[in-house]
Structure formats: structure tokens, C-alpha cells
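Example record

The entry below shows one chain as it appears in the dataset: sequence first, then C-alpha cells.
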Amino acid sequence: MPSASAGLIRFYQDDAPGIKIGPGTVILLVIIFIIAVTIATLSQEGIIPFG
């Protein structure tokens, strides 16, 4: 195995340092973020009366 790809493999191992969240959690957080930004944008434009 080339040493350049060893970092990628280590990133996905269980003993890698850092917080461990699953892909489902990441997708959920991204969807919540997109909805929040959309609501904020529509609120600023006056399309929805929020805030």
C-alpha cells in the first residue's frame, strides 16, 4: 500500500482520533443547516413573516 493513501485508511479506522459521528448524523445536520439558511434568507427577503 502506498504511504500516500495510508492517511485515508487511518481516517476511517475506529482508533482514529477525534469525534466519531456516523454518516446519517452528518446528513441530518446538513439538512437542518440548509433549512435554517433557507428560512433565514426568505425571512430577510420578506417572503415569510418571521422575526
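Notes for this example: Residues 19-51 form one domain. DSSP finds two helices and no strands in the chain.
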